[in-house]
């Protein structure tokens, strides 16, 4: 049911206004009229209008009480008094104590990993904890291992970002100089060997950066790391989580809303890892497979065209002969058929040359920074991603949509399974 156009809400301390924008091409404007409020940990400025579009699912929380106005049609809007925000604030306070200890002892800050099934608010809690940390003057590293959503860069990649400012209400965290690695699928399940390889690589580089920062009198190494993960937690998914925990040498694992996972991790993690169970917020909205696919598409569109601040991507032709395109993973053979000293799993991280063809249309290509195909291509972080908008077999060219003007910064490209239809 669609509700009225102008609504005003009086929020008591410790409560939140939740709303969703569902209808197509709808816009809802939010304004704080009095008091103080925050949105997933970012403070809202009084009297400033904030716009939300189709698909937005939002909570405006207040510690002290406030009045909020919504203009436009919301699908749902209600005030909730029961929220886990005090519990989340306590987690932040505990992390903050570890940062202070890290400063005093000149060690690294807490490395925290957030786990749980899908749609329990993992990404939201990641954002809240990062925001609270920067609001205290910290500079935490944000790591996103969720290839299904790809909040840093695009879906099909994992990445890390130094967070120096709170997330913008409408655009999220500033995406300056992220460290991004290619995976090429929507779920780790598609190639666990590759997934674990790039997770280990990312962990190595993040640890190196923390180590380097330690020498400077800067807070990046004592601020710690916050890692978001995907919602696949059973069987091989569980192994993947424990691998990530080991690779990043996590100190804290926050388990949202799954007692079984909590107990398994408590049993299997070394004693020095604190495993903490946290309730999920009643406001977290479950998304259908279709809604997830829409979020993925929207994320890729944003990568090329921006969200609030528009970007102007470039379109140009590249000759087949000027490119070397590879996909990762050769069909795996039984161990008995492998050359001596190679495991069957090794095939899963092998580069296989791809001949350009019409099948490349609409696919994403990751532009690597590798010096050559013999270089460790998977270990090289990405310069960025492009999408193929057209293939001309006669002229032997690809038309490419790229955030950067021509030429491509490198000719070694990795093919992603993800697609983007550019009908902007
Ligand atoms: P996960 O990362 O576990 O899949 P998300 O953090 O992405 O879950 O949350 C799922 C959806 O619920 C998102 O669209 C998010 O904006 C929304 N959401 C999270 N917390 C709240 C809340 N307290 N009120 C309303 N919506 C929320």
From TrEMBL:
It comes from Choristoneura fumiferana. This is Uncharacterized protein. The lineage of its organism: Eukaryota, Metazoa, Ecdysozoa, Arthropoda, Hexapoda.
